[in-house]
Every structure is written in structure tokens, then in C-alpha cells.
Amino acid sequence: MISSWFSFHKLCMVINNQLSGMAFSDCYSFTKNELIIQNADESNPSLIINLNSPLPYIFIQIFHKPSKRVPIFPDFKNLTLIKCEIAPADRDLRLYFTNEISLIIRIRPPANNVYFMSENDIIPFKKIKSVIPIFNFETTSFASLDEDPRFNSSWKKRVNILFPDKSYPQILQNIEKSNGQVIGGKFVFLPEHSGEFDPDTFYYRYREYIVSYLKERHFIPEKTRLLTLLSSHSQKRFRSVQKLTTSEEQKYKIKKYRYFGDVLMAGLLTITPGQTEYEIPVSLQLDDFPKKIALKPDLKPQANAQTWYEKARRIERLQSDYEEKKQMMDSEYKLSLIKFHELEQIHDLKVLQGWKKENKEFIDTLQQQSPAGQSNPERIPYREFTYKTWHIWVGKSAKDNDEMTFHHAHKNDLWLHTRHSTGSHVIIRRDGKTHIPKEIIEYAAALAARYSEEKHASLVPVVCTEKKHVIKRKGLPPGKVLFTMEKSILIKPLDI
User: Fold this and answer.
1) Do residues 107 and 91 make contact, with C-beta atoms less than 8 angstroms apart?
2) Which residues contact 271 (CB under 8 A, 6 or more apart)?
3) 166: which of 129, 170, 303, 479 fits an S-S bond (Cβ 3.0–4.6 Å)?
């Protein structure tokens, strides 16, 4: 319901309540699919219209013009908002301004758009391939729920569950008075104790839901992905730096190998063919070096000496490369740490998007260095519910059911599924507990019924058994399993 006609109808009332009579200087964009209607007084709220699917939204907030922005609708200059209204049968919001100028916000995913309308022209914010649509703001009334286009098919299927024993006029009245609330992760308009619509209360709940949705859907996964990428890169660079021998070690090896060559050249006449090591005379021994030198028995004494000289020269040639490589790796390691700590301090999607833009080149380089898929955090194949401190998992799809049951659940967890229909596997996590209360099992069973084909039935048979009694035989389709030692529960689907 967050994107329904009724949400935008209430947003019209909020806009009229907060912004009518205020002057707006211009329109611009600096983020894809987002239009800012800037308040002439930056200490007063502006209007932010975000057209991204699947959740377009309109925010009212104080907004300071960014230095980099793209002007939109050049003829929109210093206009006062008169009022906002919504089309009676469609999600078209019309903002009336002075000088007979209007902006129409059309919410019709995926073709969401904003249109600038003046006496002589209609200009779309986003490019369109078809002709300019027709907007109808004429007053319309509807006689029944079935002919009311403001209720989509999903609404009409669930209306008897949401509003049991309510007539069409009573349903409209309940929705009109509701300020909106979040139930089961959905934003719905159900009757409330207060019984009266309050624009400020509605807008607060509306904004909280949108922000929470964006954070859950976009911000958290993307931040986690980038943190994983940076952490992986910094660890690799740290290990690489540790593996490089130090400059002092290289100097020691150069000195040692030259010393070995000099000693062998001095003792050429004392080395016999086939000898595997040469004991250094006491007079030539040095405290920092070994007392014996390894020899290659198939080489002559002079060739053995040249082998040690060549080792010393090879390290000398690599000395300059080593310094440069160590400095580069150390610099990359420190930079990734700095970026990691910067990212940790970000708690807002827009700030994250700005950070990504500023560090695009650096992030692209890291992604090219990482194997495909390595930087992506593990996808969770289940929804998690918490009921009276118990954690309950619900599979998201047939494949996710298998992944959750056989790769995430513990053998002693309780597994539930509807007996005669397809649906989600459900897991009650024991987390070391021996006894699962009856009310927890009934709640999980109601979830299993809710996330099944029989979610609209009055009572649904659900089976439960320990996960260790659930098996997957070769050839069974995704989500299909065999089970034993089960018990049956007849339960009403959970009302979410």
C-alpha cells in the first residue's frame, strides 16, 4: 500500500499542509531518476521526487543545493506553490504554481515520470519513446469496490482479510482516517485507535518505512559488499608485504653469497671433484655466516664460486624492484584501510552513493583484481522472524528451501511444511534449547500456512519434524523433500 493511490492522496494533503504558499526557485537533478524542487529559502523544506522502481517516493525536507547539478525545466523559476491534488482514478499528482505552471508526477512503474506543463508546452523529466500521456483530473465517483481502479487486484483479493465484514463505504472511511502502519513488513491502512487522520503522523510513518526499506534493500547489502571488498584487499596486501623479504635481509644475502664465492676462489686447490660441501678454514670464518658452503658435485670449484656470485648479482638487480614493489603494496594497504574506516562511518544511502562516486576508480580497480563473485556477500535464502525470542526462518523460493534446510539449518532444528500444498519450508531454530513451547510451534505452523498456496484457506494442515528426519533424494525437484517421524497441526494461516 506504500505506493497505492491512497498513499499519494495522503501525501497531497501533507504537501498542502507544509508547502502551500512557499516560493520555489528552480528544479534540478544530481542523482539518476531524482528531481529536486528547490525551496527559494534553503532553511525551508524542498520537495524530493524519486522515481526509481519498485518504490518511488516523495520526501519533504530541507535541502541545500549541491555544487554539481543538472538544471531541469529551464522555465521553472521562482514560482509559488498554490496547491497539490491527485487524479481521482490514477496516481497522477499535480502541483499548481503561479504563472499557470504545473508539474505532474505520474507514478506508474516502470514509466514513472514528471511533466512540466505551461500554456504552450509539456516537457517530460525522463525521456519517453511514446507520445505525451493524457492526464484526467475530472471529478469521478465509484459505486463499488470492483469498479474502483484505486484498488488493484492484490488489494481486492485481500480486502476481506484486511477489512472483514466491512462495506465499500466503510472500507474507504477506514482508509481515509488511517495514518498507516507497518505490519509484517508491509505498509497498510488499517483502522487505528485514534480514528483520525493526521498529516504529520502519516508522513513520519511513511518516511520511516521508505528509509527502512531503502536501507534494508540497498544500503546494507551494498555497504557490506564494499566493506568485504576493502577488507579482502587490505588483507591480501598485508600478506604480500609480509612475504617480501626486508631490505636488510637482502643485503645480508648479497654479502653472504659474495663471501661464499670469495672463499671458494681462495680455496680452489683444496676442493676435490664430486665434493658436496666445503668447510671454511678457521682463518676465513666470520661470526655472522655459516662454517660450511654447499657445493654442486657436478660443477668444477670455479663454477661453484661463480654460482654464488651470480646469486648475489641477481638479488642486487632485484633490490630496486623490491623497494618500489614494497612501497606500492604498503601504500595500497594503507589506502584500503583508510577507505574501509571511511565506509564504516557511513549510515545513509545517499552518502554511500556519493562515496562510491568519489572512489569509483579505486573500487573498479579492486573489483578487477578480485575473482568473480568474491566480493559479494552471501545471499540469505530465508526470511527471518522473531517471536518471543525464538528465531524462525521461512524459505524464499523452492531452491532457497533446499539451501536453507540442508545447508543452514541444524539437524535438531524443527522443520515445518504444509502437508498437501507447495510453499515455504519453515525452520524453528533451537539454538541449544531442548524444548520448544507449543505456542512457538503454532506460530511457525501459521507462518508455513501463510507462505503456501493455501494462505487464503480457513484451516491448513501443517507437518513438523526434526530436520534430521528430512531427506532429499536424487532427482527430486527443487523444494521437494521426503520426511518421517512427523506430527500434524491444523492451523489458521498467519494474518500478515
Assistant:
1) yes
2) 264, 278, 295, 301, 304
3) 170
